[in-house]
Write a structure and sequence with these properties.
Helices cover 12% and strands 55% of the residues. The protein has a single domain, classed as Lipocalin (Beta Barrel). With 183 residues, the protein is mainly beta.
Length: 183
């Protein structure tokens, strides 16, 4: 009899804790997209890009393309880009989102000319029309930091301006990319 009770108890525990049991309807979709996410999805589309980089010498310009898609039911946007910079071809992948719990924008940038991931954390004071990020990545033990401002100009144009920060805190080089929606 003890074995039967023990077997029933173990069977009850095993079936009561299965990870594949459906969640109650009121617990599903726990953190839905909000106004900040809708503002980000306005950027979805295909673009041509023009970048100007100023590192203290003559400004350098380059051209490229970018495709921005909405992912995970509008919670994030993903950008896949390609172009040339300082005579070298590159591909890039960027993701942006708004963290409802932390009340901040977050992002990550990666590209084929390196193996680090730049992490971004930012805020907006105008409903997501412009987002000001603090960004950083590790470059062999030294942390590189940047200020990045993403600004929506209109439905077909936006800019991303990146300013490096020198170790003493003074502004470093700048890079401005202008996105123009393909028609």
């Amino acid at each position: 009899m003890k074995r039967l009770v023990l077997a029933c108890l173990l069977l009850g525990l095993a079936t009561g804790t299965r990870g594949d049991d459906p969640q109650p309807k009121d617990k599903m979709g726990g953190d839905p997209p909000g106004a900040e996410h809708k503002a980000l999805t306005k950027l979805v589309g295909e673009y041509t890009t023009a970048t100007t980089m100023n590192m203290g010498g003559p400004p350098q310009t380059s051209k490229g393309t970018a495709k921005i898609t909405s992912v995970l039911e509008g919670r994030f946007i993903a950008e896949d880009g390609k172009g040339d910079m300082m005579g070298m071809q590159y591909m890039s992948h960027k993701m942006y989102g708004y963290n409802n719990a932390a009340k901040k924008y977050e992002g990550v940038w990666m590209w084929t000319n390196g193996t680090s991931m730049m992490n971004l954390s930012g805020t907006s004071s105008d409903g997501g029309k412009s987002v000001v990020f603090n960004a950083s990545f590790d470059q062999g033990g030294s942390k590189m930091t940047f200020g990045i401002t993403m600004k929506r100009i209109d439905d077909d144009h936006f800019t991303v301006e990146m300013t490096g920060k020198n170790p003493d805190g003074t502004p470093g080089g700048t890079m401005m990319t202008t996105y123009t929606r393909k028609k």
